[in-house]
Specification:
Helix content: 25-40%
Strand order of the largest sheet: 3-2-1-9-10-19
Oligomer: single chain
Largest sheet: 6 strands, mixed
CATH architecture of the largest domain: 2-Layer Sandwich
Order of helices and strands: EEEEEHEEEHEHEHEEEHEHEEHHEHEHE
CATH topology of the largest domain: Nucleotidyltransferase, domain 5
Length: about 350
């Protein structure tokens, strides 16, 4: 039925949007940021160009991240952003409506589901599907989700951490935590402000996290990282150096919240599936999962082998694309804009 229709998978991330096209793989990866003019709401930039404006715009321009904690916070701006990216993929004047699949956090509400589906339909989808992020991440990481055995995935993105145990193509136990990469950045901002009386922005905090952020004290880094910001007392620019040990202290609370959620999911997992997970291990996906020492910490605290997926950042987008290519096979695991997906895709 949809043989010649363009099929597009979208990882609608809080920090980054990745777009997958059937037959081509991941063809677009850009920040989820839109820069608009305040009074007229005229769109000035989208994606990477808009991200460079974060924290650096004059009074009449505002750089917005329309997705917060994994869901749409500003529907109008999200629609503009999706239209921009889909026109880049499909061509501005394309008349062929694509089939679109978008991933959403696990346990997302019905209202939030409808908002994402409506956004996809508004930008010209022929039909829209939703897939839960941990399921997409597991597919993208190459886990055998349709086999009668337990697979566990922890997907840490920008806005949410989704933890799930999967068997026979469905999610058996899951938990979604609105603590992920963005909360890591906020924790670093608070720490630097509290310890050094220095105000830094989101971009600087993210750079610190990527450069020296650590979740485990035994992950040794022998260098410091220079951080520039504004001194709260004098109001003047100031430069400090921070160490990996300080990032461990800053990130302790959000990392422990994720660890507690992983333990809760394991406690609720049926014994047979828990046995499979002990044998096969737990797979980490998402950009937030790349935090140094996080795999080691989870392994030590749970007693289960923990593996970081090969292309952790792209697993959800890859899985979304693979699910698109197997719509009939996965129909029971998807949410559609129609009441029933039917068969024959």
């Amino acid at each position: 039925m949809f043989g010649l229709t363009k099929k597009i998978g979208i990882d609608l991330g809080t920090a980054t949007i990745l777009v997958y096209e059937k037959g081509k793989g991941i063809i677009l990866k850009e920040p989820s940021v839109v820069a608009i003019e305040k009074g007229t709401k005229k769109v000035l930039a989208v994606g990477e160009e808009a991200r460079r404006m974060l924290g650096r715009t004059p009074g009449n321009i505002v750089a917005i991240r329309p997705l917060r904690e994994g869901v749409i916070a500003d529907f109008e701006i999200t629609e503009i952003m999706l239209k921009h990216f889909i026109s880049k993929v499909c061509g501005r004047y394309s008349f062929a409506k694509p089939l679109i699949m978008v991933c959403v956090p696990v346990n997302v509400t019905g209202v939030e589901q409808r908002a994402v589906i409506e956004a996809a339909m508004q930008v010209g989808a022929k039909k829209a599907f939703l897939i839960e992020e941990p399921l997409a991440a597991a597919i993208g990481a190459g886990l055998p989700i349709h086999e009668p055995c337990g697979s566990m995935v922890v997907d840490i993105g920008g806005g949410t951490c989704d933890i799930a145990v999967i068997s026979l193509g469905g999610i058996v136990v899951s938990e979604s935590l609105r603590i992920a990469g963005d909360k890591f950045d906020e924790a670093i901002i608070r720490f630097v402000k509290s310890k050094y009386n220095l105000m830094i922005g989101e971009r600087t905090a993210e750079e610190v996290k990527i450069a020296i952020g650590t979740a485990h004290l035994d992950v040794k880094e022998d260098f410091t990282y220079d951080v520039r910001g504004r001194d709260i007392m004098s109001g003047l620019p100031k430069n400090i150096s921070i160490t990996p040990e300080e990032t461990y202290e800053a990130l302790y609370e959000p990392v422990r919240s994720i660890l507690s959620s992983v333990k809760r999911v394991l406690e609720q997992t049926p014994p047979e599936l828990a046995s499979d997970i002990i044998d096969k291990g737990l797979v980490l996906t998402g950009g937030g999962a790349m935090l140094r020492g996080l795999d080691r910490l989870l392994s030590e605290e749970t007693g289960i082998p923990v593996v970081l997926a090969e292309d952790a950042m792209s697993c959800v987008a890859l899985g979304t694309g693979m699910a698109l290519e197997n719509l009939d096979y996965l129909h029971d695991s998807l949410i559609s804009n129609h009441r029933s997906l039917g068969r024959g895709y």
